[in-house]
Amino acid sequence: MFFRRANPNFKHEGNFLLARVRTNKHGEIIKVRLSKTSEMSAQGRGYFIRKTLTGSQTLDQAVLEVEMTRGHAVTNATVDGGELIPVREWRD
Q1: What's the rounded Cα separation, in Å, for the pair 54 and 61?
Q2: Greatest CA separation found in the chain?
């Protein structure tokens, strides 16, 4: 049996999936908290979420789209207007 390695850009914390996004425009880091119970839409064999992010300091915007399995393992993630920051680089 093979196991897929966890996505290095996301961290599971209880009923939430945590991420950090750096905006392209000014480089602001936006903390993201996705609810595993209320924000996800069923799609095929898993879930999908699209979240518009706005930076509190610069008002930069980015759109995060995440696809995951029923077990909440991230299978694909894209950011329009920014980039995901790997968990090992978080400073908080």
Answers
A1: 5
A2: 47
Note whether 53 and 20 are within 8 A (CB): no
Distance, in Å, from the CA atom of 42 to the CA atom of 70, rounded to the nearest integer, reads 9
Tokens of 7: 């996505």
Does the structure show a pLDDT above 80 at 90? yes
Q: What is the four-CA torsion angle of 64, 59, 18, 43, rounded to 10 degrees?
A: -30
Residue 50 in tokens: 């699209």
Structure tokens at 41: 């839409």
pLDDT score recorded for residue 4: 60
At 86, is the secondary structure helix, strand, or coil?
coil
pTM of the model: 0.90
Q: How would you classify residue 25: left for phi > 0, otherwise alpha for psi between -120 and 50, otherwise beta?
A: alpha
